[in-house]
């Protein structure tokens, strides 16, 4: 389909026939009925496709996943219970005990914990690289047992912009795919698959839902990575799965279907972190206005960043689309229509001054959340990232004075007036 992204936001994924509901209906059921055990057996063997249990597939979730796959330009997608689950399953689908992965160091705190600690306990080692590292340093991070490269399109909360093309080229030179968490830009503002990424993940909890209503995630496969060409490295995709009567995913489901079918048939079956149909319905409501909201979030973020840049009580401000920002060049390349509504800044006077300003804000409210229609604000070093050492914080680009402001879709003038009174007040 050659429709534009806004149209896909509204109508993608669910294309009803005559007499079907016009809106995506909520299939609020766990199970489906079949006439014979044999018919059901064929579904279990992946011989026929059809629904039988909502943990593995549900029409509401499938319609919403299909919309997101269309938005990203991918071949298949799977919804998950959260963004954490999406990144966990995306990595686990390729790497197991004894394997190694490479990740940008500038990533979300929860994902850092997952890669640095929890996956390590499961036998998967991660080497973190500075997103601005030299080509030699990036090269040196790879090992013979490396299975994938991971990064965030715009890192939460450091707001670094991943050089997707460079990381994709390095990954492919080592015969492994690049996974990009595209939560902050959303496919409205950046489509990593077009720049060489192979798999895209999201915390749909953020802009995709956009209203702070549901926690969720999604994995999208671009269908471009040739698993068979690197069969030795990815036996999970290219050798028989004994837990599924010897199915070989890459053979049976092809390059476009293997990754998501394996993630669903094996990992979702065993780990069970599925999204509920009710939450998928709410997520879809958010997706229907994603293109409108992202334009406003990005414009508000830039307007607020410009105001903060010129304010005497602000020590520094970062927004990828702010001229002069360290990330501006990469943002102009990868995010030409705007980046996101998130702005980070430091208040002159450090940690305590920052906390005082935050307490005086009225429209922007303190919340462990980001990328919501309502403006919210957070002090990462005191909350989401408090388990990290000072060195780890520095590597992730987060200072103790960093305030993360997530501009909603209110009027920019009101957000600026709120900041103005909070910065002025004693
Ligand atoms: C929030 C977030 C996550 C985790 O998502 P949850 O839905 O909270 O589990 C992962 N990656 C990024 C970039 C995020 O912002």
Automatic annotation (TrEMBL):
<comment type="similarity">
    <text>Belongs to the trans-sulfuration enzymes family.</text>
</comment>
<dbReference type="InterPro" id="IPR006235">
    <property type="entry name" value="OAc-hSer/O-AcSer_sulfhydrylase"/>
</dbReference>
<protein>
    <submittedName>
        <fullName>O-acetylhomoserine aminocarboxypropyltransferase/cysteine synthase</fullName>
    </submittedName>
</protein>
<dbReference type="InterPro" id="IPR000277">
    <property type="entry name" value="Cys/Met-Metab_PyrdxlP-dep_enz"/>
</dbReference>
<dbReference type="InterPro" id="IPR015422">
    <property type="entry name" value="PyrdxlP-dep_Trfase_small"/>
</dbReference>
<dbReference type="InterPro" id="IPR015421">
    <property type="entry name" value="PyrdxlP-dep_Trfase_major"/>
</dbReference>
<dbReference type="InterPro" id="IPR015424">
    <property type="entry name" value="PyrdxlP-dep_Trfase"/>
</dbReference>
<dbReference type="InterPro" id="IPR054542">
    <property type="entry name" value="Cys_met_metab_PP"/>
</dbReference>
<feature type="compositionally biased region" description="Polar residues">
    <location>
        <begin position="1"/>
        <end position="10"/>
    </location>
</feature>
<feature type="region of interest" description="Disordered">
    <location>
        <begin position="1"/>
        <end position="22"/>
    </location>
</feature>
<dbReference type="Pfam" id="PF01053">
    <property type="entry name" value="Cys_Met_Meta_PP"/>
</dbReference>
<keyword id="KW-0663">Pyridoxal phosphate</keyword>
């Amino acid at each position: 389909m050659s429709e534009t992204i806004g149209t896909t936001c509204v109508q993608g994924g669910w294309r009803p026939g005559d007499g079907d509901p016009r809106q995506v209906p909520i299939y609020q059921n766990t199970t489906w009925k079949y006439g014979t055990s044999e018919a059901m057996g064929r579904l279990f063997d992946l011989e026929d496709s059809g629904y039988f249990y909502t943990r593995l597939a549900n029409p509401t979730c499938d319609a919403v996943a299909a919309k997101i796959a269309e938005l990203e330009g991918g071949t298949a997608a799977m919804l998950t219970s959260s963004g954490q689950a999406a990144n966990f399953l995306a990595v686990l689908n390729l790497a197991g005990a004894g394997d190694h992965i490479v990740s940008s160091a500038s990533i979300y705190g929860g994902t850092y914990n997952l890669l640095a600690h929890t996956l390590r306990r499961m036998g998967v080692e991660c080497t973190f690289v500075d997103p601005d590292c030299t080509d030699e340093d990036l090269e040196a991070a790879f090992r013979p047992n490396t299975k994938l490269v991971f990064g965030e399109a715009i890192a939460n909360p450091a707001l670094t912009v991943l050089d997707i093309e460079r990381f994709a080229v390095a990954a492919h030179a080592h015969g492994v795919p690049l996974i990009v968490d595209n939560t902050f830009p959303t496919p409205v503002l950046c489509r990593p698959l077009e720049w060489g990424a192979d798999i895209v993940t999201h915390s749909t909890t953020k802009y995709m839902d956009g209203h702070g209503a549901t926690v969720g995630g999604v994995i999208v496969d671009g269908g471009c990575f040739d698993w068979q060409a690197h069969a030795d490295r990815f036996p999970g995709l290219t050798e028989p799965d004994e837990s599924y009567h010897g199915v070989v995913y890459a053979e049976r489901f092809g390059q476009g279907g293997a990754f998501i079918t394996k993630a669903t048939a094996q990992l979702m079956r065993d780990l069970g972190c599925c999204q509920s149909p009710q939450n998928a319905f709410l997520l879809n409501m958010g997706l229907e206005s994603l293109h409108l909201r992202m334009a406003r979030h990005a414009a508000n973020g830039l307007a607020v960043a410009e105001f903060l840049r010129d304010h005497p009580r602000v020590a520094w401000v970062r927004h990828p689309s702010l001229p002069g920002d360290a990330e501006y060049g990469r943002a102009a390349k990868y995010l030409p229509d705007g980046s996101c509504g998130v702005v980070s800044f430091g208040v002159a006077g450090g940690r305590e001054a920052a906390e005082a300003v935050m307490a005086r804000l009225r429209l922007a409210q303190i919340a462990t959340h980001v990328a919501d229609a309502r403006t919210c604000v957070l002090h990462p070093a005191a909350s989401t990232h408090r388990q990290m050492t000072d060195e780890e914080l520095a590597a992730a680009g987060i200072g103790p004075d960093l305030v993360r402001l997530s501009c909603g879709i209110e009027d920019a003038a009101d957000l600026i007036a709120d900041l103005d009174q909070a910065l002025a007040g004693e």
